[in-house]
Write a structure and sequence with these properties.
The complex is a heterodimer of chains A (492) and B (485). Chain A has 492 residues and is mainly α. Chain A has 20 helices and two strands. Chain A has a domain of 200 residues. Chain B has a two-stranded antiparallel sheet with strand order 1-2. The two termini of chain B are 25 Å apart. Chain B is mostly helical. The chains are: A mainly alpha (492), B mainly alpha (485). The interface between A and B is medium-sized, with 29 and 30 residues.
Amino acid sequence: MISAQLPILQVVLPLLAAPLIVLFRHPGLAWLVAAAVSWCSFAIAVALFFAVPAGGAFDYALGSWAAPWGIAYRIDSASAYVLVLVSLIASVVVTYARSSIAAEVDRDSHYLFYAMFVLCLGGLLGIAATNDAFNLFVFLEISSLSSYVLIAIGRRRRALHAAFQYLIMGTMGATFYVIGVGLLYLMTGTLNMADMAERLAGVSETRPVLSALAFITVGLSLKIALFPLHFWLPNAYAAAPSVVSAFLAGTATKVSVYVLMRFLFSVFGVRLSLDALHLFDLLVGLSIAATVAASLIALFQDDLKRMLAYSSVAQVGYITLGIALNNADGLTAAVIHLFNHGITKVALFMLVGGIVLRMGTTRFSDMAGLARRMPFTAFGFVVAGLSLIGVPASAGFVTKWYLVMAALERAHWWLAALVVATSLISALYVWRFVEMAYLREPAGDARRAEAPLALLVPAWIMVLACTYFGLETSYSLTGAQEAAAALARGFR
Amino acid sequence: MSPQTAILAALVLPVAGAAGILLARRRPDLREAVTLSCAAALFVLVLQLLPRVLAGERPAVTLFQLLPGINFAFRVEPLGMLFALVASGLWMVNSLYSIGYMRANREHAQTRFYACFALALACTMGIAFSANLLTLFLFYEMLTLVTYPLVTHHQDDEARRGGRTYMVYLLGSSMALLLVAVISTWLGAGSVEFTPGGLLGNELSNGEIGLLLALFVFGIGKAAVMPFHRWLPAAMVAPTPVSALLHAVAVVKAGVFTVVKVIVYVFGVERIAGLSSVDWLPFIAGFTIIAASVVALRSDNLKRRLAYSTISQLSYVVLAAAILAPLSVIGAALHIAAHAVGKITLFFAAGAIYTAAHKTQVSELDGIGRRMPLTMTAFAIGAISMIGLPPAAGFISKWYMLQGAVSGAHWNAVAVIVLSTLLNAAYFLPIVYRAFFAGPAAGEAVHGEAPPLMVAALCITAAATVLLFFFPDVPLALARLMMAD
């Protein structure tokens, strides 16, 4: 049965497509392969999402080697949720990529771009699918290395510097992670995460295990750009080609958050990770610092992409806050925000791609009168921006509802107040754009120059998704609730 | 037409109207025809629901699930019926007026103006018919967003500043306080459904109820209870038709409507009457009434004076509801209708004066009544209604409020109403006196009445103000039904 092979096809298809693209070299053909593979991945992910039994998981033994000897893949509700998110964003972004990179990447490098894109996609999907801690590290590196190339592939020299900075920070993060895994292997003698979780129970409060927890948490915090380990992210997102910013903003940090949740809740378990090390207090503090500080910094950015990047740092704070609250609603908020913020940020970066194409700039002051020149782009930015704020009938609102509810359930009134207060700061930076685009006269040429449909249509699909998933929450929310339950349940 | 269809049509029609307005943007006459016909059709739709509601039916429709346990749903109860009738009825008149005003003043971006107006009405209908707090909250926020382009219509520095204040106060209060109030209700009562007799059982303690009420009252910034009132004067940078329909009727009434609805259908009048933790509300409302009147007294700018008068009159509704005596709550509901027709007349007159004579200050109005007799007569009727004298609608609502206050022995409230009546007279009657009895300054430009469409509109609303005094049956019946539910 082919359906039993879906977990491996999910990962292998994009990985195999990468060398194929390099062999073809032709930009059009490369795009075609990348697009076909991305959409196939999406179809597989959706199939897996609906096939995962409630409260259970799909196990897949690579090469039919049973678990302790071979590498095992395991798709439960949480991994299926992340697979759908990543492959959905990849599919929409790759459809959009063709016209966008034409403007931002040299034609000679197009095939390289697509090769790296599918490689990165394969890596990200592999992280979500695997149940082996070391295999996860391999996929983490595959996705990271390809994303360094993706960031640097544009024409801007600044991108080289940003990519190098990301490379240093990312490698440090991955190294920390692998040190943590090494320590765990030392104590448990296994790399299979399910076995690891089981054996950790006996040795839980030993020094190597606690050190492993610390290493893994810090390493992944670097990858998710948790404040104050976020410095690489704004530079990388601002310097990368728009399509790359869109793709990474919606997927890379999200997948790393998933890994963090997987380790904290499923492998180490709540008792050890949150209680023994007081990670709760630490995460709450860092999350608040992230949302407040990064939102304020975003407010004073002079570059649209940097503003969005800092906003991403702030939004990661909401996710980690949900993790730290550690109740059913908080964890649901964290998981659903992976999705909600993913689609919102992708929509915004894709619209910015259109602005770059037509205006050749992302400086804030050049956005004056944008609504006159690019009415659909500007309006889409506002609608997606409302989701960033968390206005009702937008995806962001659903997150906010659960986050505030989780804080109130824990009787942390001040946390609920902080969540709404920081969402008001995001209202300020979105409104700064609104005033600039709608209430200022364009300087110089005010002729209408809307982005081409090839960019506008995929971007608007994401914009409409922001509204759709704010009203009709049955898939996104039920999926998130099941994913949260699966993470909390662990491998039992 | 089944009532369910009528409810949905009332929500969809203005949105479709907005689309039609956008499509007809190159042909102004057609575009205005779309607005007018859409307004008329909406009024007819709402009117269709009236006999059923009066007969005791509560038409309801549930569309889909917003969040687990909370549906996107509508249910027409008497108070919402009253609000929808007032808003849709006055939209028709206001559309006539808008056409006169926007054309006479050669305003830019008229298509955007009419389209946003239609969307604002869709949101208003949504607020009026919401079956639960979350649906209401959704439309409440949408209303803020779609009226922002109307407030900043002129796109200059002043408009930007006004728009900023508007957003900060309205979005800030609702997201920081109202949302928390809604979620707390959900966590406390396990439901956010509007329930006759109140939704809260005995889950919450006395202190928690007081806190929740504070979150609601201040979170509903559109009710402009001090200190959350500053957005309303700021919104006066908008063209006058916007101030007239939205900032005297739809938006502000959405605020006090929500306050009354929350007190009646979430807290329950009987449930919280006599609780020590809700005593403070009449004082805040009373303070707002008096303080806003004093500011109005000192404002020379006519629209600003009207805005502060609105703040004061809105708190009448809050005060009347907060007294928690059945008669005064009826008065609160009536005042939603009575103040609407009176205040829209006053704003219409202010816009007519601006259009015909280019005057915005009260001190410039000497002798204007001789040049614009119809306008200023209508203004006088509106002023009488604000003061609460017969034969104007304001008298009826004030009568019920006073009756309720006296029957409940709320002497503080009685004193506030009496004092503010005097203050109202002190800031409205001098305008009427100047207009008709003071001599015009020398060297005045000669002008007559404003364009006929505008004059017609303000005559209609002035007539309605008087008619509502003689025939208050429908609003009264709806208000009584609300309390009987």
